[in-house]
Amino acid sequence: MQAVLILVREIRSMLERSARRNPAVQEVLNGLSAVDLTSEAVLPWQPDLPDHRETLDLAISAIPLSLRAIASAVSDANEQLQWRVDRGIYYAKDADVGAPYLNGNMHCELIGPGGSAFRTEDFTLGLFLLAPRVLYRDHIHIAPELYLTLTEPSGWRFGDSPWRDFPAGSIIWNQPNEPHATRVYSVPFLSVYSWTRDVHSKCKVVPMPDWRQVEQGLPAS
Q1: CB 93, CB 114: distance < 8 Å
Q2: With 80 as the cut, is the pLDDT of residue 193 above it?
Q3: pLDDT by residue (tens digit) across 67-105?
Q4: 20 to 30 Å CA-CA from 134: which of 41, 42, 66, 214?
């Protein structure tokens, strides 16, 4: 589990370097400061990669050289990580999240209340993967949320604002109940994520009339 510990520490280092240019990062760092990140605190868990192994490997290989330290840490920990697919974890089972998301998502909770390397009651941090050509449909949640993107580009929409593309290394901060959506192009989307509180709450889909158009406009290859 040493590689998992090194990965978490590298994520913390990345966030510390980002704190000056994005004050919202401090909320995540505050949560991390309460976690015992020592070898003795690592909980036993069973590594598991149920789906999307090739997609994950492709995503790791696509992390740019400017983020080579985190790329190395993710790669070294890869065989020790416990990944889960969201089919009713973050959403109600009948939520209209779309087949591409259901068939193309995976997350690894490194810190959190259940199935994590480090246990916390109301704070999570981990890795999130989306397959190429996935629209992660508009949704809200009461948990404040940070993404630290590791691959590029990724498209984002916040409320009624136009879509914007962000490079790897970007900080995305979603306030509670702020609608947001993500679209993935030909490169898989891999990101660090964190919910800083209200981690037991569910996401709710925010229907938008252009979902089919956006999904059809994503690159075919």
Answers
A1: no
A2: yes
A3: 999 999 999 999 999 999 998 889 988 899 999 999 999
A4: 66
Q: Write down the pLDDT at residue 102.
A: 94
Length of the chain measured in residues: 221
CA–CA separation, 203 vs 4, rounded Å? 27
Interacting residues of 127 by C-beta distance below 8 A, sequence separation 6+? 74, 81, 107, 108, 110, 190, 191, 192, 193
pLDDT in tens, 125-142: 999 999 999 999 999 999
Residues 152-174: pLDDT tens digits?
Answer: 999 999 999 999 999 999 999 99
Q: Which candidate, 136, 109, 124, 151, places its Cα nearest to that of 32?
A: 124
The three-state secondary structure class of 124 is strand
Q: Is 137 helix (H, G, I), strand (E, B) or coil?
A: strand
pTM over 0.90: yes
Single-letter code of the amino acid located at 142: I
Provide the pLDDT for residue 46. 85
User: What residue numbers bound the domain in which 154 lies?
Assistant: 2-217
Query: Could you give the C-alpha distances from 28 to 124, 125, 138, in angstroms and in order?
Result: 9, 9, 23
Alpha-carbon distance 58 to 22, whole Å?
Answer: 29
Closest CA to 189 of 144, 131, 141, 117: 131
Neighbours of 53 (CB within 10 A): 12
- Count the domains in the chain: 1
